[in-house]
Design a protein that fits this description.
This protein is mainly beta and 99 residues long. The protein is 13% helix and 35% strand. 13% of the residues are buried. It comes from Actinomadura fulvescens.
């Protein structure tokens, strides 16, 4: 099975609670829509979780979302991951920044 993991590095901006937000897009085999999960786990933690799940014969890939929920997928059904660390955005005039 070929598996593609795409990590897009970007500026790391902490959220108001001091956590980084990471968006993970998951392509699941035989499912027409991709899953999109926002998590406070780092890109490296997400990639490591998938690697560990794939090592097991019946491994399960688990991601914790921002609302303390979980997304659980059989690891051998993951077609691809696209991991993006969210950037802070500047809004307003005169250097006023809101993220």
């Amino acid at each position: 099975m070929d598996l593609m993991i795409s990590v897009r590095p970007s500026e790391e901006q902490p959220t108001e609670a001091g956590e980084k937000r990471v968006q993970v897009r998951i392509g699941v085999q035989f499912v027409p829509k991709e899953l999109v999960v926002e998590t406070s786990q780092s890109a490296d933690e997400v990639q490591q979780a998938l690697a560990e799940a794939l090592e097991s014969e019946r491994g399960v890939f688990v991601l914790k979302d921002q609302r303390n929920g979980r997304v659980v997928i059989p690891a051998d059904r993951v077609g691809y991951l696209e991991i993006t660390e969210e950037e802070g955005r500047t809004v307003g005039f005169g250097g006023t920044q809101y993220t």
